[in-house]
Design brief:
heterohexamer; A mainly alpha (about 210); B alpha+beta (about 180); C mainly alpha (about 200); D mainly alpha (about 350); E alpha+beta (about 280); F alpha/beta (about 450); E: about 280 residues; alpha+beta; 3-methyladenine DNA Glycosylase II, Chain A, domain 3; Alpha-Beta Plaits; 3 domains; two-stranded antiparallel ribbon; 11 helices; 9 strands; about 10% strand; F: about 450 residues; alpha/beta; four-stranded antiparallel beta sheet; binds flavin mononucleotide; binds riboflavin; binds iron/sulfur cluster; binds FE2/S2 (inorganic) cluster
Chain lengths: ~210, ~180, ~200, ~350, ~280, ~450
């Protein structure tokens, strides 16, 4: 169980491992983008972790990095094509960052650090943990940025609900800079400090 | 040496499988993507006119106007135009009566600032243009609109870009006459 | 767009780090002292310029004619990975000094969003070959500028009494945020006014 | 003799100035310009200034409490608040002022460790933060109305210039001409005395210059920054400023640009914040020239009419680098190097 | 048909590309093999990677290099790594390492809090013991005790030292990583390392003559030798007017000496560990 | 008017506060009943004690013998009985053994006329031996044993001999008074050193706030046709610091980390010259010196000639005691001097002044964080970056601080004087240097 939850705080990929920062910042202007991105990442992470750990004995040492890259890029392209076909507006607002999942350090980092050394089951747990941690982090950032920066929370349109929750008071005069690039960096900075504090606390309590 | 070739071969094999897989997926999704794009455009075009149907696309290279669609039925045109906004190009679709009166405008792709220029994506933003361009001029500066200049404070550039583009379209439609 | 326009755009207006969020991992990781920041900055500039050229060529000469755009991601990333390896070997072989200065940063570049990001942006913007190169080069310059400034700030912060949990990475992010705010002085309107 | 006598390290006596005396002296020198602003723009501007000062000082007190560091009395938070108030339009919503102050003190100053640790000017960063967030609230100007109660809004000279330039007719010879054509005529005297719309504290060039001179004489403000900033800006305006009016090189209206906007406030009181400016004279001169160039660039080409705040915080980024580049020359180093060379 | 052709082209070009790449890399990696010493790499993995510098090297990897190149034969220099690192390093270098050595922790050998010691002047200046000790050895009349300004707190990488609030500092043994930095920085040498399982402590550092100590501090060791003489087997040794307790010699009478000490400067360690205050009755 | 010479970089202009005592003729101070004579009144190894408790000593008898190459003899300032030898703290915060002598018996010199010894015929070796024997140490503040300074190593020559008569420390006027009242003796002392060093040029550097001394010495030199010149200098602290004085006089910079001899320069303080005169011509060891007693809390600021070992209390009482409660008692000048808490602290060879400063004078204020105002940089005469070095030391980055120029700092205090944040910069540098020394010793030990 702790393997699965470690990604939330203790080994949160964004805030503690500090990987995959670019997409976290770039697509976190709206909650819906963050959700979409997280799902994409989770999918790629799962797929590539499974493949890498399955093929770890097949892939020769000298070419293991290119091989991982090919595997990951395949899954990314899959996600990209599927999103374009079935979620075009999401695909548009995520822009090049879908394709950039490929370079995104988490996946490479995890493939190298974990999947290539472990069996399929552990790799899946790890992928889930990291993916959920990423999901958690990204949603947190986007929630803060959207609420303060735009005064709204944008989700999926469902039925008569157009997907946008407006925060009274903020929506008319949001702190717009929070939704811009400067705000993203500031928000992540303070969240990182918060996570530093959180991740140090259990150690203290234990002792 | 053989082991080197073998290693390269293994990588090639992985590449091959990937390429094959993606090729197949692509052949499935490509038509869907194309179809989606077409429907999206069609929906946008239909939403711009109250009656009649949009005709076939005709590519143009008249300044900012990239293509036009005749409105079959009552006549008039839908223009596909590109304006220069605050954050870059604005893709604008606008429908006109044959006399140049604006029926409707919609802002498509853009990279304006959320909360400022992005407000122009809302349909209500275009109220100030609807019905203008014929007898009344298209408002191109803040002073020319009475109701709610509030929506454009802090986003004058976006507003002028949209307004000037819509106006240019109107002028262009006027030159086409009743064709 | 004119070449000057491209340079201003990618160095200031759409700075890869401060406004596009590309290459943040090395930006935070390698900006602890000025020397390595400079090394990383030059290495990125170097690789980004070449990668822009090569990916342009591959895209326009192979992928586009053969209708293989769906292989873009996979091909680009492989090219960049190979390129970085190649550059590393070439530099090591022909310029040990340069290798000493930049070599250790090269492996970090494969996993750097900025290189791949600029390659993708180039393709999406429909640049010609020289424009692509210029964009790649100035994207690198923008990275160099941002990471150098950041490293000087961080070195200065090392001897300030920064609250404990804000030390290091958080302070780097927040400083980056303040920098991004100042860089907002440069916007597209300024570019338009400046070069017509 | 005292029960317990003081034991300290040398030196045993000290220059009379201290951090707090400096901060309070600067505040005092700013006071006349602030009072002028209140006189010109009415009661509301007093409210704005008070809100800025109270919010800054309260934030400082709170964070000082958390960090176990009593720093309110050093006056720097008061000064930051005062300067934020100075940099606000009279009609700005109060919450904007409060956010600017809290951002300045909490984010820009205390995140880095409080007084002296920040590398960006808190007041200006606070202003820019709210400017980008609530652009419209930050660009609502009030016409000067000394003595009367009701405020009438009107554009600033630089703002009108910006709109006017967009549809320039060829007959206009310069900014003053253009402003008359736009229907908001001003004279150099209006600008000099401060009978124009603008931020509360920035309008009176006269009073700001007087205050600044006092500080320069007391060596609180570094003349290097002031001279290189104003000098380089004047030079750029003079050489290139005429282009927009089609009058060619060397025809820019230097006086107009020197007296308008927040330039005097910025150059005398804000670019000179010692915490966020370089340490050595050479560094200060380079920094000043950078500020001058950036102000010119943003005023003439930027999308916002006023470039001073952004110019200064942009140059703040370069200060740590400038401090590395321009170190003092060590005594005996020249000789030592020669020795080594031999 | 078109579709299939395209898939074929994609297939072919990617295969070619991948093959060439693989070939290139495989060849290159052979040619550039000697890059990194395996031992160094293994050592780096065995070290915690904190780069704290407590080993005396620029960072973990330079220590690893020094060990690998046999420039340094002390394998236990990485204190933060603890026994695990030590064992791992030992294994790599083929040396058996004693894992059973008790952990050492720092201890501040002084109980002279503000109310128990005399002072003759008011010190004004840097909050730093080394700075204060330059001026008449600090404002406490006892020149051996803790100045309480916390130079040690500033250097401790583990945040293991805190001020007590009454002019002294104390080490939280559970956080101490035995790096010894505090011992080194303390101008008065009042911090010494003791084993984690210490039973008793002589909590004083004064080498002044008994009379002088008594005049300056109410809990200072006066070197009366009662502990040493009355309990000769208990492992107390008085040197330079100061009783030193020996931890490898814990003979009978150890605890009785605590009672007999006239100034009560011998205290049980366990008690000190859990108690916040300095009071020992 | 021709601009006077000075050093170009850095320096400050504190109020000189010399008016209180600069016209006061040197008076003989009282002697306390007991003299406390520390065995380490100089830089270098302490002297080895030659007496023990109960010994009867004469005025001028050797108490301590030079304890190494860099060390100096210590003589008894008074006749009497050795009561004890105890450790005391000197104002510089260092603990040292001191001989406590209870005054009794007859003075062999005091009040007696001594014949002058003709020195022209003595050889250089004889002269240096005399300087060494009489325990002369520099009186400019550093208390470096003078015989060591005068023994020029082989291969080096002294081109220029500079007499440091700058007295740039505020309040202090002892050198000034010595020049006014003992001009002839000082010049004679300089001639003795000229014989030892045979420099091609001899310059007496005096700051322009002592123009009367400039004129006085100039007249005396002209009268006797001596081969030396007086050079008035602009008033700027710390002109008296060796390297800065050399820069002001010769325009040359002593390289970082090197001695003035590198440029062929040697310098000595006026008081040192007087001591040499007394040692050689009057055969008198260093048993007394001129001390300025001043400061806002002193009733009658004066210049006193005091025996070594006299307590500060005695001197202050000679000046009428305190007029108000002092905030600090300082040994030396206010810029480089040390505070003391014990009025029984004795006068030593290096005590140039005793100041009792009031709260109003010291301008104390709460320390705040550094404002990066740069005042410390622009005031530093050594061109180092005090704020940077201080912050590095504050963060335990001692090696980096050393690299940034910590060892170039002469602890003149200009930076800390100017610092509006009232940061004790100099204390930080001293601490840094201490730790650096400790680390170096540990390294050497290993
Ligand atoms: C962060 C930021 C974003 C901006 N975004 C837009 C925008 O999307 N559209 C626009 O027209 N102007 C934008 N501007 C420019 C100014 O808000 C605007 O052009 C200027 O203030 C004039 O507007 P006003 O006369 O309506 O107040 C932006 C400015 C800033 C600082
Ligand atoms: C509103 C206000 C409050 C002030 N409060 C203080 C204060 O708390 N402490 C202080 O030293 N000076 C304060 N001053 C300033 C002093 O009266 C004086 O101007 C300043 O200390 C000048 O110092 P100087 O003579 O050393 O340059 C204040 C000034 C003003 C305008
Ligand atoms: C900051 C500083 C100020 C000094 N000021 C004086 C001074 O005013 N007069 C003086 O004779 N020596 C002064 N000295 C000491 C000289 O540097 C030098 O040690 C002395 O002149 C050598 O002569 P002495 O050995 O005879 O004392 C000062 C030193 C320092 C570091
Ligand atoms: C000459 C001078 C100018 C100052 N200017 C500013 C300023 O523009 N903005 C500000 O927040 N504080 C200013 N301060 C106050 C103080 O330096 C500032 O709050 C610090 O940056 C906080 O660390 C100034 C202080 C002085 C002495
Ligand atoms: S233990 Fe030593 S360093 Fe620590 S506070 Fe006490 S005297 Fe200072
Ligand atoms: S400095 Fe090292 S030895 Fe001392 S308490 Fe901290 S961790 Fe323990
Ligand atoms: S004390 Fe040292 S650093 Fe300060 S001014 Fe003097 S020489 Fe420079
Ligand atoms: S004088 Fe003081 S406040 Fe100014 S820079 Fe130097 S240390 Fe900092
Ligand atoms: S996610 Fe962009 S560089 Fe790491």
């Amino acid at each position: 169980m702790s393997e699965l939850t470690k990604g939330f705080i203790r080994e949160n990929p964004i805030f503690i491992l500090m990987l995959g920062l670019c997409p976290s910042l770039a697509v976190s202007t709206q909650v819906v983008n963050a959700l979409g991105m997280s799902v994409g990442v989770l999918f790629v992470l799962l797929g590539s972790n499974i493949m890498v750990s399955l093929l770890k004995n097949f892939i020769p040492e000298e070419v293991h990095i290119p091989a991982y890259i090919v595997i990951i890029a395949t899954f990314v392209t899959l996600v990209d094509l599927l999103m374009q076909a079935y979620a075009p507006s999401l695909s548009k607002s995520l822009g090049v960052f879908v394709q950039l999942i490929v370079v995104n350090c988490i996946i490479l980092g995890r493939a190298e650090a974990f999947a290539s050394k472990n069996n399929v089951k552990d790799s899946i747990v790890d992928a889930l943990s990291m993916g959920l941690g990423f999901f958690f982090g990204l949603t947190l950032i986007s929630l803060i940025r959207e609420v303060f920066g735009a005064g709204t929370i944008t989700l999926f349109p469902m039925g008569s609900f157009d997907g946008v929750i407006e925060i009274p008071g903020l929506v008319n005069a949001p702190i717009r800079i929070i939704s811009l690039s400067a705000g993203a960096l500031l928000v992540v900075g303070y969240l990182k400090a918060l996570f530093n504090w959180l991740s140090e606390r259990p150690a203290k309590e234990a002792s | 040496m053989t082991s080197t070739v073998k290693k390269a071969g293994k990588l090639a094999l992985i590449c091959a499988i990937s390429a094959l897989l993606l090729g197949i997926i692509n052949s499935v999704t490509e038509p869907i993507i194309a179809e989606r794009k077409k429907i999206e455009l069609q929906n946008a075009l239909i939403s711009l006119i109250e009656e009649g149907t949009p005709g076939a696309k005709e590519d143009l290279a008249e300044g900012i106007i990239t293509s036009r669609y005749p409105i079959e039925g009552p006549g008039g045109w839908i223009l596909d135009m590109t304006g220069k906004g605050y954050g870059g190009d604005l893709k604008i679709l606008a429908s006109y009566k044959p006399d140049g009166t604006v029926m409707d405008v919609v802002l498509m792709d853009n990279s304006e600032t959320p909360g400022l220029g992005k407000k122009a994506e809302k349909s209500s933003y275009m109220d100030k243009f609807r019905g203008k361009g014929g007898s009344e001029p298209v408002p191109v500066s803040k002073d020319m609109i009475q109701e709610s200049p509030d929506t454009i404070t802090g986003a004058t550039i976006t507003f002028s870009a949209v307004a000037n583009t819509v106006k240019e379209g109107s002028d262009y439609v006027k030159t086409l006459g009743d064709k | 767009m004119s070449y000057l326009g491209i340079i201003i755009t990618y160095v200031f207006i759409s700075n890869v780090i401060l406004s596009q969020f590309l290459g943040l991992c090395p930006f935070i990781g390698v900006s602890k002292n000025v020397e390595s920041a400079l090394g990383m900055g030059f290495a990125v500039t170097f690789v980004m310029s070449i990668a822009s050229l090569v990916t342009w060529a591959i895209y326009h000469m192979i992928l586009l004619p053969l209708g293989l755009i769906y292989l873009q991601t996979i091909v680009f990333i492989l090219i960049i990975a190979a390129l970085v390896q190649l550059v590393e070997m070439v530099v090591q072989k022909y310029s040990p000094i340069l290798y000493k200065a930049l070599g250790i940063y090269l492996p970090l570049i494969t996993t750097n969003c900025a290189v791949m990001g600029i390659a993708l942006i180039n393709v999406n913007s429909g640049y010609n070959v020289i424009e692509s190169f210029t964009a790649g080069f100035s994207g690198g310059l923008g990275f160099l500028l941002a990471i150098t400034l950041m490293s000087a700030v961080r070195v200065q912060m090392e001897t300030e009494k920064v609250p404990r949990y804000l030390k290091d990475a958080p302070i780097a992010f927040i400083s980056g945020g303040l920098m991004a705010m100042a860089f907002m002085a440069f916007d597209k309107a300024l570019l338009n006014n400046l070069i017509g | 003799m005292k029960e317990k006598i003081k034991i300290t390290s040398s030196p045993q006596f000290h220059h009379p100035q201290s951090t707090s005396s400096i901060m309070w002296t600067v505040s005092l020198c700013l006071l006349p310009a602030g009072l002028w602003g209140i006189y010109m723009f009415g009661f509301r501007s007093l409210l704005v200034m008070a809100a800025a000062i109270i919010a800054s000082v309260a934030t400082e007190a709170l964070l000082g409490l958390i960090n176990k560091d009593k720093t309110v009395s050093d006056g720097s938070a008061f000064l930051t608040g005062l300067l934020i108030g100075f940099n606000m339009p009279p009609a700005v919503p109060i919450y904007v002022v409060v956010v600017a102050s809290v951002f300045a003190i909490a984010v820009v100053k205390w995140t880095f460790g409080g007084l002296g640790a920040n590398w960006m000017n808190p007041a200006l960063a606070g202003r820019v933060f709210v400017f980008f967030s609530w652009t419209s609230g930050m660009t609502k100007w009030t016409l000067p109305h000394p003595g009367t109660i009701d405020a009438v809004s009107g554009p600033t000279p630089l703002g009108s210039l910006k709109t006017g330039l967009a549809s320039l007719t060829p007959s206009v010879q310069g900014p003053l001409d253009l402003l008359s054509a736009e229907g908001v005529p001003v004279s150099y005297m209006d600008l000099f005395l401060g009978r124009i719309p603008g931020c509360i504290g920035e309008v009176s060039a006269l009073l700001l210059i007087l205050g600044g001179l006092v500080l320069i004489i007391r060596k609180i403000v570094n003349w290097e920054i002031v001279v290189s900033y104003l000098g380089s800006f004047a030079l750029f305006v003079w050489v290139f400023g005429g282009f927009r009016y089609g009058t060619g090189l060397f025809t820019g209206d230097v006086l107009f640009h020197m007296l308008s906007g927040g330039l005097m406030l910025g150059a005398l009181f804000m670019a000179t914040d010692m915490v966020t400016s370089p340490l050595t004279s050479k560094g200060m001169i380079v920094y000043g020239i950078g500020c001058g160039f950036m102000t010119y660039l943003l005023r003439f080409f930027g999308s916002v009419p006023e470039g001073v705040s952004l110019a200064i915080i942009f140059m703040n980024i370069f200060v740590p680098l400038l401090n590395r580049a321009f170190q003092p020359e060590k005594f005996g180093m020249i000789a030592a190097e020669q020795e080594a060379g031999k | 048909m078109d579709e299939i052709l395209r898939i074929f082209w994609g297939f072919l070009s990617t295969v070619l590309f991948g093959g060439l790449l693989g070939l290139g890399l495989a060849v290159a990696s052979k040619k550039l093999k000697v890059e990194k010493d395996e031992t160094v790499e293994a050592l780096e993995n065995a070290l915690p990677g904190l780069n704290c510098g407590s080993c005396g090297y620029a960072g973990c990897s330079s220590y690893a290099e020094a060990v690998a190149e046999k420039k340094d034969d002390d394998l236990s220099k990485c204190k933060p790594g603890g026994p695990e690192s030590l064992a791992a390093i030992g294994k790599i270098m083929g040396i058996e390492v004693d894992l059973n050595a008790t952990r050492m922790v720092a201890y501040v050998h002084c109980m002279g809090s503000n109310d128990k010691t005399s002072r003759s002047f008011e010190y004004e200046g840097l909050t730093d013991c080394n700075a204060a000790s330059l001026l008449f050895g600090g404002s406490k009349d006892c020149k051996y005790g803790c100045l309480g300004l916390g130079s040690c707190i500033n250097v401790c990488p583990a945040n293991a030292i805190e001020k007590t609030g009454d002019g002294l500092v104390r080490v939280k043994p559970e956080l101490c990583i035995s790096c010894g930095k505090c011992v080194e920085i303390c101008p008065n040498g009042v911090i010494r390392m003791i084993p984690e399982d210490a039973d008793f402590i002589v909590a004083c550092n004064s080498k002044d003559k008994g009379k002088d100590t008594k005049a300056k501090c109410s809990v200072g060791c006066i070197g009366c030798k009662i502990c040493e003489k009355k309990f000769p087997e208990a492992g107390y040794k008085v040197q330079d007017n100061l009783s030193i307790i020996q931890y490898d010699n814990r003979g009978p009478g150890r605890a009785d000496a605590v009672q007999k000490c006239p100034v009560k400067c011998i205290i049980p360690y366990a008690e000190r560990k859990s108690n916040e205050t300095m009071e020992v009755e | 008017m021709k601009r006077l010479n000075t050093f170009p970089k850095g320096g400050i202009h504190p109020r000189d506060c010399k008016e209180a005592s600069c016209d006061k003729v040197i008076q003989n101070a009282s002697m306390s009943n007991t003299a406390v004579v520390p065995l380490s009144q100089h830089i270098g190894a302490p002297a080895e004690c030659l007496v023990k408790k109960g010994d009867i000593v004469e005025e001028g008898q050797l108490l301590g013998k030079s304890g190494g190459f860099v060390s100096a003899n210590i003589h008894s300032p008074v006749p009497g009985e050795v009561k004890e030898i105890k450790n005391i703290f000197l104002p510089n915060g260092i603990s040292t053994p001191a001989v406590v002598i209870e005054m009794q018996g007859e003075f062999s010199r005091l009040g007696k006329a001594v014949p002058s010894i003709p020195w022209e015929g003595m050889s250089v070796e004889e002269l240096t031996a005399k300087v060494s024997e009489m325990g002369i140490v520099g009186q400019g503040g550093a208390t470096f044993p003078t015989h060591v300074k005068l023994a020029i190593p082989k291969g080096k020559t002294c081109e220029i001999f500079i007499i440091n008569a700058v007295e740039c420390e505020p309040y202090l006027t002892s050198d000034h008074r010595v020049m006014m009242e003992k001009g002839r003796e000082v010049l004679e002392g300089i001639r003795i050193i000229q014989k030892i060093l045979s420099p091609s040029r001899t310059v007496i550097g005096i700051e322009a706030n002592k123009m009367d001394a400039v004129e006085h010495l100039d007249t005396l030199i002209k009268q006797s046709g001596l081969n030396m010149e007086v050079m008035p200098l602009q008033v700027k602290y710390p002109q008296g610091a060796e390297k800065n004085l050399i820069k002001a006089v010769t325009g040359k910079e002593v390289p970082s980390g090197k001695l003035p001899l590198e440029l062929g320069v040697i310098n000595a303080n006026v008081g040192t010259c007087l001591s040499i005169y007394e040692a050689v011509v009057e055969d008198k060891p260093v048993i007394e010196r001129v001390v300025t007693v001043s400061g806002g809390a002193i009733k009658n600021p004066s210049n006193l000639k005091a025996r070594i070992g006299t307590s500060f209390r005695t001197l202050i009482e000679d000046c009428g005691g305190f007029s108000e409660e002092p905030a600090k008692i300082v040994a030396g000048g206010p810029m480089m001097g040390f505070t003391v808490y014990d009025l029984d602290t004795p006068v030593t060879k290096g005590t140039s002044g005793i100041l009792a400063l009031t709260d109003k004078e010291i301008k104390a204020a709460r320390q705040t964080a550094c404002l990066s105002c740069g005042r410390c940089l622009s005031s530093c005469p050594m061109g180092v970056n005090p704020t940077k070095i201080f912050k590095l030391i504050d963060n335990n980055m001692i090696d980096e601080a050393a690299e940034a120029g910590l060892m170039d700092c002469v602890e003149c205090g200009s930076c800390a004087f100017m610092c509006p944040a009232h940061i004790p910069l100099v204390q930080g540098f001293r601490t840094g240097k201490k730790i650096l020394r400790k680390n170096a010793m540990k390294k050497a030990g290993k």
